[in-house]
User: What shape does this take?
Amino acid sequence: MTDRPSILIINGPNLNMLGQREPAIYGRDTLADIEAASRTKAAELGLDVDFLQSNAEGELVDWAQNASKSHAGIIINAGGYTHTSVALLDALTVSELPVVEVHLSNIFRREEFRHHSYISRAASGVICGFGLKGYLLALDAMAQLIRPD
Amino acid sequence: MTDRPSILIINGPNLNMLGQREPAIYGRDTLADIEAASRTKAAELGLDVDFLQSNAEGELVDWAQNASKSHAGIIINAGGYTHTSVALLDALTVSELPVVEVHLSNIFRREEFRHHSYISRAASGVICGFGLKGYLLALDAMAQLIRPD
Amino acid sequence: MTDRPSILIINGPNLNMLGQREPAIYGRDTLADIEAASRTKAAELGLDVDFLQSNAEGELVDWAQNASKSHAGIIINAGGYTHTSVALLDALTVSELPVVEVHLSNIFRREEFRHHSYISRAASGVICGFGLKGYLLALDAMAQLIRPD
Amino acid sequence: MTDRPSILIINGPNLNMLGQREPAIYGRDTLADIEAASRTKAAELGLDVDFLQSNAEGELVDWAQNASKSHAGIIINAGGYTHTSVALLDALTVSELPVVEVHLSNIFRREEFRHHSYISRAASGVICGFGLKGYLLALDAMAQLIRPD
Amino acid sequence: MTDRPSILIINGPNLNMLGQREPAIYGRDTLADIEAASRTKAAELGLDVDFLQSNAEGELVDWAQNASKSHAGIIINAGGYTHTSVALLDALTVSELPVVEVHLSNIFRREEFRHHSYISRAASGVICGFGLKGYLLALDAMAQLIRPD
Amino acid sequence: MTDRPSILIINGPNLNMLGQREPAIYGRDTLADIEAASRTKAAELGLDVDFLQSNAEGELVDWAQNASKSHAGIIINAGGYTHTSVALLDALTVSELPVVEVHLSNIFRREEFRHHSYISRAASGVICGFGLKGYLLALDAMAQLIRPD
Amino acid sequence: MTDRPSILIINGPNLNMLGQREPAIYGRDTLADIEAASRTKAAELGLDVDFLQSNAEGELVDWAQNASKSHAGIIINAGGYTHTSVALLDALTVSELPVVEVHLSNIFRREEFRHHSYISRAASGVICGFGLKGYLLALDAMAQLIRPD
Amino acid sequence: MTDRPSILIINGPNLNMLGQREPAIYGRDTLADIEAASRTKAAELGLDVDFLQSNAEGELVDWAQNASKSHAGIIINAGGYTHTSVALLDALTVSELPVVEVHLSNIFRREEFRHHSYISRAASGVICGFGLKGYLLALDAMAQLIRPD
Amino acid sequence: MTDRPSILIINGPNLNMLGQREPAIYGRDTLADIEAASRTKAAELGLDVDFLQSNAEGELVDWAQNASKSHAGIIINAGGYTHTSVALLDALTVSELPVVEVHLSNIFRREEFRHHSYISRAASGVICGFGLKGYLLALDAMAQLIRPD
Amino acid sequence: MTDRPSILIINGPNLNMLGQREPAIYGRDTLADIEAASRTKAAELGLDVDFLQSNAEGELVDWAQNASKSHAGIIINAGGYTHTSVALLDALTVSELPVVEVHLSNIFRREEFRHHSYISRAASGVICGFGLKGYLLALDAMAQLIRPD
Amino acid sequence: MTDRPSILIINGPNLNMLGQREPAIYGRDTLADIEAASRTKAAELGLDVDFLQSNAEGELVDWAQNASKSHAGIIINAGGYTHTSVALLDALTVSELPVVEVHLSNIFRREEFRHHSYISRAASGVICGFGLKGYLLALDAMAQLIRPD
Amino acid sequence: MTDRPSILIINGPNLNMLGQREPAIYGRDTLADIEAASRTKAAELGLDVDFLQSNAEGELVDWAQNASKSHAGIIINAGGYTHTSVALLDALTVSELPVVEVHLSNIFRREEFRHHSYISRAASGVICGFGLKGYLLALDAMAQLIRPD
Assistant: This one.
């Protein structure tokens, strides 16, 4: 284990299906592609990364709660739970860590019910619409949040 | 394993309690009764059936995601998650299978919050209000969806 | 006249145009096709069928009112009046017969104003999204409603 | 034909079913009972009565339009069209006659969608909740509207 | 004191100002005129009348609560409290007496906030738009409510 | 019968009363005046005209459905059904003809419930507020829709 | 008694607690301070003042009703009844006097339910956010309303 | 007078009718029963109690305002004013005392308009649904609020 | 195992973090503190307690379903699922046990989305705003619900 | 300068981009084409035309204000300001000229936020959905508004 | 230039048209009259005044931004931008000056869309309904805001 | 002029005030700081930058319209116009360029009216909450949009 700050990247439901899921919306990159690119980017930024995915709301809550012991920040793409989970909002608040919210697609151009995010209330900032690239921008933003110039 | 098409029947939260749960609304049939009747009906239609139940939203998501590898269609009674789960809607869409939504009761005659279904957006059709019989009608409808005349 | 139970199938406005009306939504079957298939299915179920269509709300109300004298149940596809007719809801309630509501398309995937049905308040159950097949499923469901096992 | 003022009493959809329709809500009186009682009451008040019923919105519109040629006032129980018919509202306004709106039941204690009446915008007053008696009160009110003291 | 049934007529805020208050809406009759006409009408119907007015919500509540000891029914024009007083609704319910709601003007042709009445939930019926005459109709309706044929 | 393109002009409820109906809103022209002016204008444009009026929603639906066999376009002033008829919207869509929606008054300056039109969803364009003249403008617009330069 | 015009200043619930009530919002002035300053200002303007306070809605209604006999205008800070009292709105209208509405705090920067005022419908104008000073401005405005240049 | 802390228990409109008012909802206990049980419980907790009831909103406001001089906390069941009184909310805030809100019934299972409480904004906590027992729990909670361990 | 009635206390997501989570809102007590105090209180009341916590909605559903076999009542603090879980509401209803809903904070003074509880529809009563103490009050209330005097 | 009446045609934001802007919605005509056709049409009608375009709300307001000095009527296509500009509505009202509102597309078939027009409140009539032709119809309508037969 | 504090009075769109614009609503005073009266009043109060008007939102934003360098307070009548301009709200906040919002008419008695003001969020207080006089009251209020006793 | 792709960075109202405007929300960086950092970042990415600011909605519209001739993409922080400008949305769509929307603060944690953006409908993606850094991330994202790997 290094002593570089470690960032927890949490992926919510259905993100394990990337690459096959509605590519017109989500693109052709798989979650493994995103993980690999995130690890490369993090290394450039002097950061470690833990990269997790689950379809279970409770598991996302567990991870967010525990992050404060071991991580310096949370990047989260909560998928469908973005719009429905007060429990996850509360868990992110509990963590007291800087949070960056990411979405692959521009959720504001999709169905009305995807325009509202509970998660945003606990996030420093939001990045959406840039596919895989959004995770790299989020790491960049996080690096600055935990190590402001 | 047969080479007959297999249909995944997914049952959501509290359906394991059928028979004892508010029989005035849900009737006296147990989930085992529904499974048995569904298997009989499927056999008549030349279909195999996998019949699952869970109270955990994440597990329902897992099953829906995986169905496309092994099944020809999904019949789903998502119980209380019908009205609250974007994650499950997304998982059904990911599956790219024909989906039939079933409810035991006529949800449009119950509380206002039960009138809205996220699941319907991913479903070919909806059948509600016919108790156990609704599952058999759903199998009938599914047979035609996957083997149109 | 037979002594088999007779089911009244009521079709509302524009259903006389089936086959030419927006086939991407409603399919290629004509109302005559639906009537023929319904008669065949009813015969299998030991049921008689009266099959009516009108564009006039008042006529649909008349038919529903009168059904209790001569019929054992009503299957209704009220077309555009589904969403706007309290008069028809009241007429179905007056009939005191079991009612099955049918729609060719999945109305929950269409315009917002098609998601609400006054008719549902008087119906035992709803079947939508299965085209012509939906009428046959409705007959099946009706058979059980009037002759439960 | 007398030269007494004549009042047109218009009854909308399903009122022909009175006596058998949900007696807990609408009571046991038939429309014939209401007509007979109305004629007796009108005679006491020195009024003639025309008493009509139809399930067809267009026919109600016709009657309201024509009333100004032959009648001194309109008493209307528009049934289900109360809540949905702009056409009937416009026809009552066209008539330029005093209009009294009647309902057998107290519509404000029933389903939410029965609380709103388009008809009220064209009515001098509203009487609801008194069953058959409400028609007699309406005649009383009308007598004063057309012959104020 | 007679042994005729006694009806309590409750008048709410600003009804003491009748005759001078917006005569285009409320007419030229004073509350004294209404009381006199109500007493005459009641006598014809074999009823006694108590006729009260107050601008204080609490006093109206008191009167409605106490009515059950001494009266056979309540006729109420709650004025502005019609639209805002849950306390008065509860008091009328507590009384367990038949209640007739009266309004001088047709409240459904006025400002939007006057279309909703809490009182209606506790009333057998509603009469509005007929000025002074409405009180007499209400007595007529009440006579029948407490002495149905 | 000529071989000039024929335009169906459909008039909805209460338009037969023009000239006497609320002239401050609808003007002094009668429907016969509008028909005459429309026929003159159509002749100038090399068009035939069928000019119909009905108070019955179902009849309007019938006419719209049948138009595609015999007409090149539909001009419709649906009166009160503009705001309430899904059935008429569907019938206009079924016709697959160009549709021009006309209103005599500027419906956007009237009551809130007149601001919404179901008909507009099936119309190429809308013309409102110009009285009789609006029909002539609609013919002009229709001429171009069916014979673009 | 002078023959100077007299202005009625009505203060609603909780204004008797000024000085101790949430001073961050309402300031340190007591109602006595406001009365004294109002009397001084009124004297400068050649006006008499009656200055009243009550926590009872009915009493405020009484005062507003009676004002027309004895006063030339009403300045009212209705406190919490501002947002809930139709009865008080009606009483102010009944008075047929010019009315100026005052609030100590800027109600539009506070909770959402304080943004709506029934009183405003009966007021010539509104002044809010200036504490004690607002009463003096209201007197100034009133002076002009009753004695326009 | 003792030197034990004194709690003011305020009861709003219609609570004087307990025991006879809708016993299915409110139970058979009278307000005197509640007062007696509250006094016993308070004595156990070393507290004094003042126990008041009024149907008048203004009187409730008066009591709440004055409480801070003489009491250590307020327990309030505001009855129908719970849902409509901003004045009472303000008075409770003015008191600067700990406030416990009590309801006999579970207001969240009743009509929609009973789900919203203005009072809650000024309360430390809310207890509802436990009938008479709820007052005793409220005293228990209050004891801790004014004498935390 | 004793033969004392056993109460199931269910704690939802993030309650395992008490003591560190936003202490200004939730206080300094840990869930272990609450459990200990609850056990002491239960013993005094002659009750057994099972005390559970989970971040997973499905697990909460499981526990509620199973409670009826082994417990006499359920006390539940559903955390973030309070506001979003129909599944949990249904599970509590299925249990057919008395349910008491508890919240540490006064949810009606927090964000708008925390004001609505699905759980309340299945609860006998609600206690909120009293921190750890609220659990003890809930046990007190439960004791009475299962052993009314 | 002629002494023919002059019509001011005002074009709002982005209309300078016509021809290249979303031609599927707005067609291939440029604003220069529209101006040329409008001038030709105006000449036929004996009218002069001033034809202006601006992206600046304030400039549109200036033009509308000044029009009354120099013009006989205003035809306006306010583009995006149609839906958001109270200032422009007020300026059109200030002008006291007849106003005709034009839109190239049928705004009622587009996004929800384009269905509402502030401009309509100041317009005699509205013409939408006919592309360039709509301007010519508007001139025709304007000719009649300023020179009624 | 004096060393008296200078107040910036900003007038928004259409206020340059005062005197001719809807005099029933806005009165007969011109903006020049208001400026003259404001200058006189300011002089009495020992204040300087800059008095500006523009129809352009951006220009109003510029003025508000720059005011803090040169002025001690802003009085603003933002006309139609009151209801639609977040940019102007932000500019007033940026200025960090005391702001008084003025309207000539009582906007709460006009169309619904005029009841909401973005400006109020940045204002110390609001004065509306007093015509020209309102500006003088605003200067009075401003004098106290910048020079409290 | 280089032949590197040029990005237009558009800044809306009040962004010229950065550094002094509510630094708790917007930070201490000035717009010049942001421009300098953006130029440095762009150079690293092989991009040219035009950096503009205006308080005038029309000017922002002009810039967006013209961008397609000279630029490869638009980064826009529309300030207060984000929430109110359909005209700007249309101009961005007209440009047919990739658009990245930036906000300094996390608008989803601020007032409700800042949660909605018209701009988002024309944007590929949104970045908010990262202050000056957000512009650099936007450039990074833009580089990839115009030169995907």
Observations:
- The mean pLDDT of chain L is 94.
- Chain L is about 40% helix and 15% strand.
- Helices of chain L lie at 23-26, 31-44, 57-70, 86-95, 132-146.
- The first strand of chain L starts at residue 6 and ends at 11.
